[in-house]
Sequence to fold (417 residues):
Amino acid sequence: MDKIFVYGGKKLQGAVKISGSKNAALPILMASLLIDEPCYVENVPSLADIDTTIGLLTYLGKKIEKNDHRVYIHRDGHLKHTAPYELVRKMRASNLVMGPLLARLGKVDVSLPGGCAIGARPIDIHLKAFEKLGAKIKLEAGYVKLNANELIGNRIHFRFPSVGATENVLLASVLAKGKTTIENAAREPEITDLAGFLNKMGAKITGAGTPKIVIEGVKKLHGAKYRVIPDRIEAATYLITSAITKGDVKLLGVEPNHLKAIISKLKKSGMIIKTGKDSIESKWVRTLKPVSITTAVYPGFPTDVQAQWMALMSTVRGKSEIEETIFENRFLHVAELQRLGADLKIKGNSVHVAGVKKLSGAPMMVSDLRAGAALVLGALAAKGKSVISRIYHLDRGYEHLEKKLKGLGADMRRIHS
Fold:
């Protein structure tokens, strides 16, 4: 397995281009299952999760050509209705084939999905929503099997504003008969982006980005060309990089409105933040103050940035608290940050942080994608050498991570082993 060697203690400076959003691109690519006509998607990041999605779509009956950050999708025979374990186990977002295949074929068999080890993340919200649309559900031999002679629009109220469930219902209901209303829907920018793509394909969706989304079913969709939004989690990670290394980093090709929660906390800590139409500059000018955070659904502080914020607060003298309200078991990075010398104590769903004078390089192991980002940040701030193992998690969500960080002045290298 590959490893990253990081020699920390350097101030990072310069500009970095933010890639297209992984979490927006995945459901948009899945939406191609709704049609036989070609789709052309731009600003798709080059990531392991994207490769996994392309492999799954190819197996299901799509022909895909990827050129740099452009993906061209068209028909390659009849669609299959089964997504096997071998293809689904690598990525939880694979369950997003359920909605479009159920809408197109009236049946779908999907292996229970895998992904990061950050809690159970049950799919019962998805399944109850499909039942509301008229699907019958059976769990058998590790597979979820859905059948529906016809999908009928209905009122669906989520007990929790699940991003994946909102996406799956959007993907299924655009071809359902009649009107579907999603209440307590997820409001993330990635939801709005998926709805934008579906509307370009001929869907009739209103209210995306609000807690109430209304979908008027149509009989048929058509091909479309679309550009994916910038990745707000990657952007947040680089903003925190500037803070933890006492640097000056400018993000290019970013959407500042998607990062208000992060920008607010960074300003509160003492960072100087300047935003442009599609750029953000984050500059360290003085000793930072500790700032506590509580993760929340959008537009609150993202759970996907919790680990990175913890790494930053570990270097800020004083006490802060990190409260996780979205996922259980999302503190696997705590033990690894402690190896750098971080003073962290887990209490229930919170971590109490006492900032230390300095971190020291150490060997660490990545448990999940965002935890891996936190370990890289910690290593960049630490004195001496750190060795980070199991970095395939990072390749799932950060495009050209080492190249971008080295472009900002980081001293790091990947070792193939």
User: Anything to note?
Assistant: Residues 115-120 have pLDDT under 50 and may be disordered.
